[in-house]
ABC-type quaternary amine transporter (Nocardioides gansuensis), 326 residues
Amino acid sequence: MSIEISGVTKRFGDFVALEDVNVSLPTGQLTALLGPSGGGKSTLLRIIAGLETPDTGTVAIEGVDATRLPPRKRNVGFVFQHYAVFKHMTVAKNVAFGLEIRKRPKVEVAERVDELLRLVHLSQFAHRLPSQLSGGQRQRMALARALAVEPTVLLLDEPFGALDAKVRKELREWLRHLHDEVPVTTVFVTHDQEEAMEVADEIVVINEGRVEQVGSPDELYDLPANDFVMSFLGEVTTLGGTQVRPHDVDVATAPRAAGAIEGTIARMLRIGFEVRLTVLTVAGEEVSVVLTRTHARGLGLEEGATVWLTPAPGATVVPAMRPLAV
Ligand SMILES: Nc1ncnc2c1ncn2[C@@H]1O[C@H](COP(=O)(O)OP(=O)(O)OP(=O)(O)O)[C@@H](O)[C@H]1O
């Protein structure tokens, strides 16, 4: 295990930002810390970096107790949302900075900078100033700079947070490829579940200072530990007092299945290849259902029609507002 966080608690005055956090982050893996704003993700990342000290608990990096080590002795690379660049230095100089202050030989620095700029697809911009780059290019430069000194651990705090949706999506794919090429143990803070699902090998869901669940994107989506994780990782609806994903609700036009819940289609929206229904049940629940256009057409669905709903076989069903025993 590369990073072992054991029993970490952090308070700011009376406020408990992290409470008894225990997580193991394996070497070479890309882990996302995912959760709502204020949940404690950045605090945990800053504790790993050594920028904050936990009140209790320990942090070990590659078997070494790093709890009291200053940041510069931890060999971590760090990239923030708004990355501080040296504005008067070229892209190449920015990337070279960490190596130059470590007094590495000039030839070695030049070779390493070339290699890194190639890796982040910025070779042709080596002699530009950071102000002449786009936001996405600047964050790629920031990553090259963080990687230059060959960190044991790379820590990224919402590195693409300030960029527009399209650039964010491109950078996500790019980060995944970069990680496959240079498999440095990477911890990535995000509040965007799609970003975490797309990029991470493993996701740590953090809410109100506690770890709700740790698992692969598939595990969290298919086997959420509780209703919080389920609703944070995808759309949910309530059916008969339980939570289920809208595409996991089976619709029938006759009461065939035992326990099927009767309702009326109050609204029917066609969006691309999907049809989205709002069904008002006889018990007064509003259930969202998503099905394909072909399926909806096959059933002959229309607004005002009576339907019977059941969770699809194999659907993830979680009791609303109660943790699921796993
Ligand atoms: N230095 C500090 N002093 C006081 N409170 C702090 C400090 N740093 C963080 N907090 C509080 O701790 C809580 C967790 O903050 P943190 O930045 O870790 O959350 P986060 O999950 O990263 O949220 P976001 O996605 O908004 O960055 C917040 O309520 C925040 O206000």
In short: The chain has a mean pLDDT of 90.
